């Protein structure tokens, strides 16, 4: 919308200008009180004006400074009122300039590749502070202020004075003309704004399907390809998302509807999805993976709690889910048909707490803080099958050991307790290289450490193929897991690899890792990726 300079006179607002198609961006009085600089946008052209005459009833502006083929931003006076600093996109990137009001020369102070904004000259005129944008990060930068050594912008680029903005022509309304009609206001209705905001492709693949020479395979799902849709109203009262994909010759999918009208946020989900899980074989000491189909409906309630939100983030999220689901194994060539459906009603309480977590835009993982994550699955009703119970708790501590190089250091510990195997997915719990290990009933303790180091901030992509590469990084890890008991088995591995963070179709973020894990038990090397 267009704007005018106005004065408050009690409860009334009196306009002091009458410009057409103009927007006031900034009004900057000089420290010595001799001038007032105004950054004004007139019909898309943004230049600097100064107050020529200021009376009680109107303000007159005189064109002062403009740059050809450039937009001026962020006015700031020097301490003595001689230099007027501003930022402008005179080249491909926004940089810092200074206008010498005595010589009427424009001096270029910076030449950064990505952007420099909001300049400020120190009180002793020795340095200039500004915000530099680079690698998706804004940093406060200070450089010496040396106007005698700065490059002078060519006079052919500088515009000193043009026609002032014109006041609008008076419009006389003809007699008998009706007043303009305006739409009547009406209450906000979320359902009017629930059109899909995003439609995107989906690709599903079980990373544990990589061939292992020591693992006996029964079922592979292959790659699943489909489409997803998501949307919400602008106020966030309702949100929905869902996807459908074709995998292993069948159509699978899930759909969720969530409400944000209340502090306690309920959601409803229906699903029919496959996965592969490790199971123990009766006639072999090795484990194998079989397909597991799940279908059902779940009702969840979630309570987010924000404790601190500044440089450090402290927050918690509590949730409780009630789910009715049917499960069955499939894909076993030794059986004539798939196993029968098993019905159950499960409660799933979850809690996440983050304490003083800090992560800069260029950090791949938090650089400091504590994150606790607990979840459980408890069968409260089953159909003639033994009820299952499982609990997983993890604690991750991030250490600020190398902030300047964005090195992430994580120390982690986890505890898993379950009364039978395959209650919950354990591929992310076991040490890397042991994804095929079938954990039976009992308790298991895992500890480990991981270091993540960015190698290259790529920051490039393609618009023809919507792909944007963010960062290439290396990582190293060491993990060990022990079954708690009299003769508990132990699994340990160390390794390293590389990872790539990228964005696909402008909204889908991916983090792909590939590496090698040296398994201390069998003393072999296994290819791992996730």
Topology:
Blueprint lengths: L5 E4 L2 E4 L6 E8 L6 E7 L2 E10 L4 E9 L4 E6 L5 E6 L6 E6 L4 E4 L7 E6 L5 E8 L2 E8 L6 E2 L5 E2 L38 E7 L11 E2 L6 E9 L5 E10 L2 E10 L5 E16 L6 E23 L3 E18 L11 E17 L9 E15 L6 E14 L4 E12 L23 E21 L4 E18 L5 E15 L3 E12 L4 E6 L1
The biggest beta sheet is recorded as:
17 strands, mixed
Tertiary shape: elongated
SS-based class: mainly beta
Instruction: Name the beta content range.
Output: over 45%
Radius of gyration: 32 Å
What is the assembly state of the chains in this entry? single chain
Residue stretches low in confidence (pLDDT < 50, at least 5 long) are 169-177
Q: How many structural domains?
A: 2
Mean pLDDT over the full residue set: 85
CATH topology heading of the largest domain = Porin
CATH architecture of the largest domain: Beta Barrel
């Amino acid at each position: 919308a267009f704007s005018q300079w106005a004065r408050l006179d009690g409860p009334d607002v009196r306009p002091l200008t009458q410009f057409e198609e103009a927007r006031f961006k900034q009004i900057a009085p000089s420290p010595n009180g001799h001038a007032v600089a105004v950054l004004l946008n007139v019909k898309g052209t943004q230049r600097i004006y100064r107050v020529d005459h200021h009376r009680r009833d109107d303000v007159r502006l005189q064109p002062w400074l403009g740059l050809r083929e450039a937009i001026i931003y962020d006015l700031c006076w020097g301490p003595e009122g001689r230099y007027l600093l501003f930022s402008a996109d005179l080249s491909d990137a926004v940089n810092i300039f200074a206008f010498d009001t005595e010589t009427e020369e424009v001096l270029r102070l910076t030449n950064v590749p990505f952007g420099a904004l909001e300049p400020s000259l120190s009180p002793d005129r020795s340095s200039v502070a500004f915000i530099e944008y680079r690698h998706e990060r804004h940093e406060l930068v200070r450089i010496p202020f040396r106007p005698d050594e700065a490059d002078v912008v060519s006079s052919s680029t500088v515009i000193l004075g043009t026609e002032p903005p014109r006041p609008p022509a008076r419009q006389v309304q003809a007699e008998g003309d009706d007043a303009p009609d305006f739409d009547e206001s009406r209450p906000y209705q979320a359902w009017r704004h629930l059109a899909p905001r995003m439609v995107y492709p989906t690709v599903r693949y079980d990373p544990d399907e990589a061939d292992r020479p020591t693992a006996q395979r029964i079922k592979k799902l292959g790659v699943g390809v489909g489409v997803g849709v998501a949307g919400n109203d602008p106020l966030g009262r309702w949100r929905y998302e869902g996807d459908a994909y074709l995998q292993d010759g069948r159509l699978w999918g899930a759909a969720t509807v969530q409400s944000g009208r209340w502090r306690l946020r309920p959601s409803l989900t229906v699903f029919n999805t496959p996965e592969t899980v490790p199971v123990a074989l009766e006639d072999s000491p090795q484990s194998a993976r079989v397909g597991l189909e799940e279908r059902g409906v779940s009702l969840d309630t979630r309570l987010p709690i924000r404790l601190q939100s500044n440089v450090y983030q402290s927050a918690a999220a509590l949730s409780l889910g009630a789910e009715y689901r049917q499960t069955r194994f499939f894909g076993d060539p030794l059986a004539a048909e798939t196993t029968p459906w098993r019905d159950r009603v499960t409660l799933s309480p979850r809690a996440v707490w983050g304490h003083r977590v800090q992560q800069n835009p260029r950090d791949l993982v938090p650089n400091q803080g504590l994150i606790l994550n607990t979840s459980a699955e408890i069968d409260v009703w089953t159909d003639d099958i033994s009820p299952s119970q499982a609990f997983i708790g993890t604690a991750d501590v991030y250490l600020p050991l190398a902030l300047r190089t964005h090195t992430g250091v994580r120390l982690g510990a986890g505890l898993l307790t379950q009364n039978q195997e395959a209650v919950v997915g354990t591929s992310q719990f076991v040490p890397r290289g042991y994804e095929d290990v079938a954990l039976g009933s009992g308790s298991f303790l895992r500890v480990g450490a991981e270091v993540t180091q960015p190698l290259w901030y790529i920051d490039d992509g393609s618009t023809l193929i919507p792909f944007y590469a963010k960062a290439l990084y290396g990582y190293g890890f060491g993990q060990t897991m022990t079954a708690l008991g009299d003769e508990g088995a132990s699994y340990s591995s160390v390794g390293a690899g590389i990872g790539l963070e990228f964005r696909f179709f402008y909204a889908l973020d991916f983090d792909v890792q590939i590496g090698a894990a040296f398994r201390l038990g069998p003393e072999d090397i296994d290819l791992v990726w996730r």
